[in-house]
Amino acid sequence: MTNTFEEKIYRVLFVVILPFLLFFMAYYGFESSYVKIKTVENVPGFMFSSVYAYRVLPNLFSVETTDFLRNFTENYLPAQKDFILKSGSYFYHATFLVNVLFFLLSSYLIKILLEFSSSNVSNIKIMHLLAVFFLVIAQYVPTNCDMMAVFLYLAGIFLSLRYLKLRKISDFVLLLAVIFVSTLVRETACLNIAFFAALTINLKNLSDLKSKNFIETGALVIAFVVPYVALRLLIPQDASFAEGVYLKQNFSSPYNLAGLIFGILSVYFFYHLSQPEERKILKNYLFFAVPYLLMIALVGLFWETRLFLPIILTALLTVSGSFSKKNVSA
After folding, report:
1. Is residue 166 within a helix (H) or strand (E), and if so which, with residue range?
2. How far is 245 from 52, CA to CA, in rounded Å?
3. H-helix or E-strand spanning residue 21
4. Where are the alpha helices (DSSP H) in 167-253?
5. Hey, what long-range contacts does 70-73 have (CB within 8 A, 24 or more apart)?
6. pLDDT tens, 261-292?
7. Domain residue extents for the chain
């Protein structure tokens, strides 16, 4: 892309301002069955129990941001307190602020990843806007961890591409660090392993695999498993893996079935647009993402389409040509 004044204006308008407005509308312009979170005064206790206790970084951000907003409003904006609380509690506003920060960072990373592709400028802009809409749509389930997880996932994709292109050990070390930190947010971190494996492991020629590919992928697995296990040892909970098993509900509830269909159709939409090379990458990725998909089916809820976001974004980036051979080989 050129760095003309017009292009700079576009970046501000459509990479920052429009995404911010859409995100703001999702939190303050519409209401869903999860709207009761608006009246929660403090960070809910359930976030520090069961599997939610392992979302260490999001919980820390929630506590600190909620306390900051409360203190700032009461000390510096007392006259606006009633107006501020009219639209939601301090906790709700804190959730919005943390999420919108990582949402805008994700928007910027998506733009960078799309510019890796050989698509023309118009296609890149359309794909970026489509990615933004997918991110916003899933916000009918406001949580304190998903936008942070998406940002770290995209950062992992970026570092994977840089490493496979330049083969700089510093990029691989940063990728290990991102997966480690991302595991302190939620289990989406394992999808970075699936992405890396999809680009480096040829399922049709396993006999020709370089041992280096296995070693590198194994290192990523360790970067995920170590914090995952450590959290469960350091923060023991009655439910260390999931709150419950929702397999039956996922395939019997019309809401959950609607969420599943949404996820499948979204991925198929991009698969249908892709070229043979891109389809091969996407198939490999979905194969290595099977553990995550099984986890969603067993202990997640299909209705919460936010769980499909990383996979949908990967499909979108794949069809854009961002993961073509010229971008993953020196």
Report:
1. helix 146-166
2. 15
3. helix 18-28
4. 169-183, 190-200, 211-234, 247-250
5. none
6. 999 999 999 999 888 889 999 999 999 999 99
7. 5-328
Length reported for the chain: 330
At a CB cut-off of 8 Å and minimum separation 6, what does 311 contact? 191, 263, 267, 285, 286, 289, 292, 293
> Cα 50 to the chain's mean position, in Å?
22
Full-model pTM: 0.91
User: Could you count the other beta carbons within 10 Å of the beta carbon of residue 57?
Assistant: 18
Place of tokens 């991110």: 135
Alpha-carbon Rg for the chain, nearest whole angstrom, is: 20
Contact predicate 55/248, CB 8 Å: no
Written as six digits, the tokens of 260 are 């599943």
Query: Do the beta carbons of residue 91 and residue 66 sit within 8 Å?
Result: yes
DSSP class per residue in 39-81: G--S--GGGGSGGGGG-HHHHHHHHHHHHHHHHHHHHH-GGGH
Q: Check if the beta carbon of residue 110 is closer than 8 Å to that of residue 153.
A: no
Separation of alpha carbons 190 and 217, rounded Å:
11
Residue 258 token pair: 């609607």
Distance between CA atoms of 95 and 66, rounded to whole angstroms? 8
Task: Please measure the distance between the N-terminal and C-terminal CA atoms of the chain and give it in whole angstroms.
Answer: 22
d(CA 262, CA 256): 10
pLDDT in tens, 22-66: 899 888 877 666 667 788 888 888 888 878 889 999 999 999 999
How is residue 100 written in tokens?
């919108």
Tokens standing for residue 1:
């892309």
